[in-house]
Design brief:
Blueprint: H1 15-18, H2 31-38, H3 48-52, H4 59-67, H5 71-79, H6 85-91, H7 98-101, H8 113-127, E1 142-146, H9 150-161, E2 165-170, H10 178-181, H11 190-202, E3 206-209, H12 219-224, E4 229-232, E5 238-239, E6 252-254, H13 255-263, E7 282-286, H14 290-301, E8 306-310, H15 322-331, E9 334-336, E10 339-346, E11 352-365, E12 371-375, E13 381-384, E14 387-390, E15 394-395, H16 399-402, E16 429-431, H17 434-437, H18 442-466
Parallel strand pairs: 1-2, 1-4, 2-3, 4-16, 6-14, 7-8, 7-14, 8-9
Antiparallel strand pairs: 5-15, 10-11, 11-12, 11-13
């Protein structure tokens, strides 16, 4: 069999067109393209891609079904392990996981596993009627899930499929967590998130929005209401700042606020929606992760004439996905590598007028294994901007933990939980996703939700036997 060395490219909106709208950039595979790409798969007997997938999807099997044009079979195979395939096909960093492990990658480009997963999920979405496996009888056990992000949704779906009665409590007015407030429409459309949450609901999961657990109810109060177990998946939504002069000026945003106002509250449609946002003509975004790329590309779509990305290390150390950095570059974001802000400048009325930064060079490796950036004395320079977005990570929101004194935290305020099961120091309580690991990927949050679901199920069944 002749191997095609390069993966089939996916059509995209042209950069000059897409910066004028919030529509999805990547347009997905046609059936013909999916067939062509699927046939590149070697169907390895010992498939390293499965081992590299955090949720253990049987990748060769679902790809084989695509080749056979059994798209129903493909999506069925994926959903054995992953109930959110349309999301994962779009935002999972496959290039560092399953695709990196692909046998074909030793000599050629790896199979585009993520694009094929998206194709199967989009086929089901276009069909409009998702298949649902028969559910087992109810066990009589009730589980409360705190947070409706990827960890909470995965945990909820798996527990519902095991016969438990599951209720998700979401603090915001729409479910989805970071999937709706953090990831922009052009990368993950809200309709896709709604579709997959509706599927979770179809399994019998109840979703309650506007419930801030820790304020409206404590965990002990949830137990007293008859819940037998609780899973905490509240994410890491506490904004981080640099503690430099000028961060309290008007026009300085955390990436959390900037993206939440735009994504969830539709500030880009003001005044049709009543959540305004300062639309800068010259915007600086500080940080090198996917959130920084999202904020930079969002600023362009809001009407910025110039967007400057400021990152203290080099391009090689940037944690953002290669694809997202390239998208930002193609759209016109100007990158300032080896650059670190030292202060934000403002006028007499308290509005941002510029950002002063210093050039950096890379020194010895730090605890992350990356070379530590060191300031170059006397290399300060200023960029004139009217909006600054700080996208340098997020911390643990202290609200729920502070209302639960018997929940052990680490020195950064994250919940301490068993690495395998997600069990916390509080009996009957599990936790997973970013509130345990710190800010990480959607797929790793989903994996932790699934692991906790298995552990919770075992706990509920054992307590059922003893009770």
């Amino acid at each position: 069999m002749k191997i095609v060395p390069e993966k089939v490219e996916m059509s995209r909106q042209a950069p000059k067109v897409r910066v004028t709208n919030f529509n999805e950039v990547a347009l997905g595979y046609s059936e013909e393209e999916a067939q062509q790409e699927a046939k590149r798969c070697l169907q390895c007997k010992k498939a390293p891609c499965i081992e590299a997938c955090p949720v253990e999807i049987d990748i060769p099997s679902f790809i084989a079904r695509i080749i056979e044009k059994d798209y129903q079979g493909a999506i069925r195979k994926i959903k054995e392990k992953n109930l959110l395939p349309a999301m994962c096909g779009r935002v999972c960093p496959q290039e560092g996981l399953c695709e990196k492990a692909c046998t074909l990658a030793k000599k050629y480009e790896p199979v585009a596993i993520g694009r094929l997963e998206r194709f199967a999920a989009d086929w089901e979405l276009q069909k409009g009627n998702p298949e649902r496996s028969p559910l087992p009888p109810h066990t009589g056990k009730r589980v409360a899930i705190i947070g409706s992000g990827p960890a909470g949704l995965s945990c909820a779906g798996d527990l519902a499929r095991l016969g438990h009665k599951v209720t998700i409590f979401e603090a915001l007015h729409k479910p989805g967590g970071v999937l709706v407030y953090g990831i922009p429409e052009f990368r993950l459309p809200k309709a896709i998130v709604r579709w997959e949450i509706e599927y979770i609901r179809s399994l019998g999961v109840e979703v309650k929005t506007g419930y801030v657990i820790g304020k409206i109810y404590t965990l002990d109060e949830l137990f007293s209401q008859g819940y037998n177990a609780i899973f905490i998946g509240i994410g890491a939504g506490l904004p981080k700042f640099m503690d430099i002069p000028g961060e309290n000026l008007n026009g300085v945003y955390s990436a959390n606020e900037f993206l939440t106002r735009t994504n969830l509250m539709k500030a880009y449609l003001f005044p049709d929606y009543d959540t305004p946002i300062k639309i800068g003509k010259r915007v600086a975004v500080v940080g090198g992760g996917n959130v920084a790329m999202d904020a930079s590309r969002t600023a362009l779509r809001l009407g910025a004439k110039r967007v400057f990305n400021i990152y203290r290390r080099s391009r090689k150390e940037m944690p953002a996905r290669v694809e997202e950095v390239q998208n930002a570059k193609d759209e016109g974001v100007k990158f300032n590598f080896l650059t670190n802000p030292v202060r934000i400048l403002g006028n007499s009325k308290g509005w941002v007028t510029g950002i002063e930064s210093i050039r950096m060079e890379l020194g010895e490796p730090d605890e992350s294994g990356r070379q530590r950036p060191v300031p170059i004395k006397g290399s300060e320079f200023t960029i004139g901007v009217d909006v600054v977005v700080m996208a340098i990570g997020a911390g643990a929101n202290p609200l729920l933990p502070s209302a639960t004194p018997d929940l052990k935290l680490n020195k950064w305020g994250y919940i301490i939980a068993d690495e395998t099961t997600g069990q916390t120091s509080k009996d009957g309580v599990w936790a997973g996703g970013d509130i345990v690991s710190g800010a990480a990927t959607v797929i790793s949050a989903m994996a932790s939700g699934r692991s906790s679901a298995r552990a919770i199920h075992q706990y509920l069944m054992e307590s059922h036997k003893s009770g």
